[in-house]
Structures are given as structure tokens and as C-alpha cells.
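Query form — protein Cytochrome d ubiquinol oxidase subunit I

QUESTION: What is the three-dimensional structure of this chain?
INPUT:
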Amino acid sequence: MELDIVELSRLQFAMTAMYHFLFVPLTLGLSVLVAIMETVYVMTNRPIWRQMTKFWGSLFGINFVLGVATGITMEFQFGMNWSYYSHYMGDIFGAPLAIEGLMAFFLEATFVGLFFFGWDKLSKRAHLTVTWLVALGSNLSALWILIANGWMQNPVGAEFNPMTMRMEMTSFFEVMFNEVAQAKFVHTVSAGYVTAAVFVLGVSAWYLLKGRHTELARRSISVAASFGLASAVSVVVLGDESGYSATHSQKMKLAAIEAMWHTQPAPASFTLVGFPNREARETHYAIHVPWAMGLIGTRSLTTEIPGIAELVENAEARIRSGIIAYDALTQIRELRDDAPADVVATFEEHSGDLGFAFLLRRYVDDPRDATDKQIAIASNDTVPQVWPLFWAFRFMVALGFGFIATMTYFFFMASFRGMRFPRPALRLAVIMIPAPWIAAELGWFVAEFGRQPWTVDGVLPTAMSVSHLSVSDLLLTLAGFVTLYTVLFVIEMGLMLKYIRKGPYMDVAETDVWTERHTHRLRTHDGKGPFAETPAE
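ANSWER: The C-alpha cells for Cytochrome d ubiquinol oxidase subunit I are given below.
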């Protein structure tokens, strides 16, 4: 029954988190794209760029509001479903979330109102400043949330207090500049930029296919392709950095993603495709790329990457060390200030492995009573499900390279072929709109599912983190959250499609006059300007 509670709690949080992240990437990227468009408007004073800013800004606003609604609901689950985690880790995990609310969220929420209602009340430069502050707030919000999440992946700057039975922060600097958190931040933000670029590209391509709002669509494609190409390349490069940091902090996750069952001689090869078999501990029909994994994971040709079998053996040793720490902790808790110095010293020596002893709590109330068989089972629990991680990672990477190819093509056509886009390419751009969201969700699946069985890697098992709820409570709230989030998602899609079909409706007369004059000037010359009328092929 306890396992059912754990799995239902995990399912509920996974569902709400993945729903919420349907809104986040577009908010991150579209805020910056809108700021870039308004910057061009202020520099050129061309009304078409103001119209672009308002149109894409309205889509940003719809997405922003619904993203906030889903995010606030999600955070309540820490206290509701994960009360022991909140008690055990709250002093550390709560700090970046509080800063996110006080600094980033209020900055974002304050200036987003000025963005929408300040067009005729602020000067051009003042409004542009507001727009960039909205983008800054959006990205700062992601920073603090990912610092909190990165600490769960690599718990640095904290230590366990045996008197309070809680983790306490020892260095905010280490928590903030955690290598995993920083790598996750830049990678996630870049993925959001790609999402927005593909979205703008796809919607603009749809306008060109329909022969509507062609001036806005061509300029939007030009901005999206340039911004998207840089972002797509960044995602791949920064994703490689995440893999390198996992070599130090999450070796089991890296081994599972690669289905590396045993340590290979350095430099390790990269498995391009294959069919992992956990029972046999081998990957069938594997195609290897020599040296690639060694270079990705270690940046060298001489350093080994440990395999799953060796990491399981290491986990068993750490479980046995953790039992020693648990025994010493029990004595310290009983004797308090009268605990012998040698007991305290023993605990300090083995305290880093205390979390591994907690893995035994699924099988025995007191880890000291665990049998060798139970220890072996618990050590094998440290291996996440390999095949879902293996294939999720590869689909994500394939999509990443697909974005690079797509953005390269549209950047080339926009920059060197006079905005002449073949209709099949425009259709492909429309079809690709959902792809960045798929890639982003796969990325979060790899990051979070690959951390199991830990809530905080190596410190607190997921099975210990949950609240004491009944299965019926969890089923009821799970149904409620899924219903609520589905309704919000339907509302989001309905509003987005409504305003996309409606098209740019603000500053129409002023923009039409400017466009007519601009088109006349182009025709007066050689007709080969970058935004000259050219039908889609």
C-alpha cells in the first residue's frame, strides 16, 4: 500500500509538472523575441514592427497568464503530497523558491501590466525598457526554480543536522552556483527560445500559405530563423555540458541513459541506437560510435565512465556504510549531548551515506535489521528504468538536430534567397510547431525519471518523501488536477487559435499606410529588396 501512495504521488506531480511546462518554454522565448521586435521598432520607427510586437505580445500574454495559474497550483503539492520532503529539505529548497516569488515573479507580473497598457502612456524607450524587464523577469523566474531543482540533482552547500533531523544550508553560494543548476538553467532557457522561434516560424508560415499578413509574416520568419538558429545550436552545446556535469554528480543516471551496463575501457563509445535489456544487462543490436561518450562525458580520452554493474556494487557498499551512520545517529538522538565522542565521530565519517541506508526503509523498519538479500535488492533499486531513459534521450537529441537543420534552412532562405519559401517548407514549419514541446517534455522526463529512486540524489529516497495520505485522497486530487489542467490547456489552445486566426488587429491603418509606401519604394527601385512582394513557390 505504501508503494501505491508513492507511485500515485509521483504520478500526480509528474502530470501537473508536465502540464505546467507546456506553458513555460513559450513564455521564456516569446518574451525575448517580443523584446527584440520592439527594439527594432524603436530603432527604425517603422509601424510594422510595433504591430508585430503587439501581435506576438498578445499571444505571450495568453500563455503567461495560464502558465502562472498552473505554476501556483503545482507548488502547493510540496506541502500536500510531499510533506516529509518539505520538512527534511525545506530550509534549502524553500530559499530559491521564495526568492523567485519575491524577485522574479513580482518583477514579471508588475511590468507585464505596463507592457500591455502602457503603449500610449510611456515613451518609446520607457516601454522598450518595460518589455525587456518582462523578459528578464521571465528568465529570472526560471533561474531560481532551476537552482532549486538543480540542488535536488546535486545537493551541495548543505549538511544533515542529527539533532533536528533536517538538512540545513551551509553555503548559499554553493547552492546558487551549483554546476548542475547552472547547466540546467542555460539548457532549459535555450530550449524555451527554440520553442518560441519554432512557434513564430510556424504561425508565420501558415500566414504565408494563406496569403495573409505577408509583411508581418516575412519579418517574423526572419527574426525567428536567426534567433532560433542560435538557440538551437546553444541547446545542443549546453546539453552536452549537462552530460558532462552528470559524470560528476549523477553517474547512475548517465549510465542508464547510455545503457552502459559495464564499465568500458576509456574512451567509452556512444550507443547510437539499440534495445536495452535490463534482465540480461546488455543492449541488443547496438550501434556504437567509438570514443564519443568518453569525449562527451569526461572531455578526455583516458577517463573511464563507470557502468551500471559497478555502480550497483558501489551502492551496496554505501548502503552498508549508511547503516553504520544510521546506528550512530540513533545513539546520538537517544543520548543527545551525552553522546560519546567516538559515536559522533563515527556518524560524521559515514553521514554522507545515510541516505543510502534509508533505501532499506521500503523493506524493513530499522535498516540495521536488513538482511544481505534486502541490501542487495535496495542496491539494485538505485538503477532507474533504462529503456525509457535510453530512447527518450535519443528522441530528444534527434529533435534538437532537426531544429538546427530547419532553422538553418529558413535563415538561409530569408537572408540569401529574398524570402522565397517553397510551399512544402512552409507546411513543414507549420507541422513542426508541437515538436519543441515534445523535446522539452522528453528532457524533463530524462532529468526527473533518471534521478529515481531519489527525491534528492543520494540523500532522501522518494519512498520516504511522501505525505501520509490515503489512496482515495490521491486518486481524488489527481483527478481534480488533471481535470483543472486539461480545462486550462483547452482554454489556452482555444485563445491561441482564435487570436492567430484573427491575426494582427492593432495599429492596422497606420501599418497599412506605411506598408503601401514601403512597397511603392521597393518597386520604384529594382524590386529586389528583402521584403519585396514574392509569392510563395
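ADDITIONAL NOTE: The first strand starts at residue 158 and ends at 161.
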